[in-house]
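Z., the sequence and structure:
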Amino acid sequence: MGIIAKGAKCNVIGCDKDGLRSLTTSKVEGTGLSISGVGKKTALCKEHYKEWKKATKDERDVERARYDRF
């Protein structure tokens, strides 16, 4: 059972919405979102997950292209 199924709230400071997605904390830290708590996983609500996706779009495209070579 994951942290979202257990009812985790969004870990961004000032947000009290329910978490929709969980990501590793190291992936979220470099995007400018202020995270409360220091654990392995970070829960993000729908709005903050969308912000994270926009902030990391270029990085994820490069990572995906690395595996699409063959």
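The mean pLDDT is 88. The beta strands are 21-24, 41-44.

Let me know what you think.
H.
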